[in-house]
Amino acid sequence: MTTESTSTSGAHTTRAAPAPAAGGLVLAPQRGARGRTAAPRPRPVPQAPFVAALVAVECAAVLPAATVLTPGQRSAVLLLQLTACAVALHACAGLYRPTALGAVRAGRYAGLLDELPALAGRLAVVWCAAAALLAARSPEQVLVPGTLAGAYALHLAVVATGRAAVHHRRRRVARDQPCAALVVGAVPAAQHLAALLLQHPEYGVRPVGLVGPAQDIPQPAGAEPSTGPALPLLASPEEVQRAVIQNGVQDALFVPGDEGAPRAEQLALLRRHGCATWLVGPPARVGAPSPGAAPDPMGRHLWGYAFRLLEAPGPRPGRAAKRALDVAGAGLLLLAAAPLLLLCAAAVRLADGPGILFRQERVGEGGRLFTLLKFRTLRPADEHEAATRWSVAHDERLGTVGSFLRRTSLDELPQLWNVLRGDMSLVGPRPERPYFVDRFSRLHGDYAARHRMPAGLTGLAQVHGLRGDTSIEDRCRFDNHYIDHWSLGQDVRILLRTAATLIRPAGS
């Protein structure tokens, strides 16, 4: 297997893209201590208080509407039923959750006029249902049409006014606390979009960098030197990672180019760092909503540019059953192997001192990072060796205990906890470190496709002997074949074959 450590990234010098023409992109850097340039870290816009405020508006709005009712019609039970039904229907309609563009604040939330038809229709259903229940329970307290219409109109007016105030406050916060974003694509088009977003802070987006290959930097002949600082061009995965961490980037805006769809490796890289990915551009390039989907409100755009979420591949049918198998299997195996886990832990402690477990950053489903657990079998010389050395199976520093654990694969037992947590599955492609994921993705075009399903303790490649220092191309082919032909029965067969191979351990 691979060297034990938490992977780290080295420092790289960031190149700056040239400044755009007049009226274009200008972003002044902030000066930190000792004159060094430091990117400002944005404060994330808190979402929970706004959601709570919207729910509070719904709860309070029923009280003014109740003043229209007679004392006999006004009951605590009726008011509670009205409030609960309104909140439930509005939640089902998505009126409490973000509807567009991740942390791009102004485009993220529909305006009141966009919401008004949904609010009016659902409140009408609520009041009609309340009138029917009241008539069935107490015929003498039936709501006459005039009273019903007045209560409904007052309820709708208070809800609309309250939600308008919440949206106004949210837009102010978005403008005052813009969200950091990266713009991805050909440099001229990316610069143009970044310039527009900086010129229009009402959208709540602050571009902090351009992501693209270095050769895309335009170098016009006779160009005058830049009169102001420009956004940095991030051409390597290390530069992108550093920009995401330093600026708290939550979104990546892809500008469609002549090649059409964004590059798969760029999508995987930014999703790996937790960024929501969006396609921003003219409607013809961005594409129409999927058939049957509700059209976006007219007001949802970025200065006339359409946008849509670049969704990661959705869950496949049967994933719930696979997860149930993982939870049941990992739970039972952890209970059954508890004595063995204690023996392994004691052996590692006696042979190698403190630090029984080690934690190593690996790439899981959708490019997301998680911390993998294993029994420690040796201590690497430094973090660079741990992050970049491929195999230590025959390292002279391996002691008797470490060699035994690796040869029998007992060092992998703590990963049952990763399975129980949902970081991994019992069966799937083996997870790898970010350094090697980037390297193998460049060498093998289908390598990134392995991240379509959760990483696994074992997989189709492993039961065919592809463990340790074996062909990455072969592993990639087996892993993608497994994903393309997945079934729950196949998982069970791979687990049984893995159990059989443990009788004749091959080592790692």
UniProtKB/TrEMBL annotation:
Residues 1-22 are annotated as: Disordered. Keywords: Membrane, Transferase, Transmembrane, Transmembrane helix. It is a multi-pass membrane protein. The chain crosses the membrane at residues 50-70, 76-96, 116-136, 142-166, 324-348. Residues 322-503 form the Bacterial sugar transferase domain. GO terms for molecular function: phosphotransferase activity, for other substituted phosphate groups. The keyword Secreted does not apply. NCBIfam families: EPS_sugtrans. Belongs to the bacterial sugar transferase family. This is Sugar transferase.
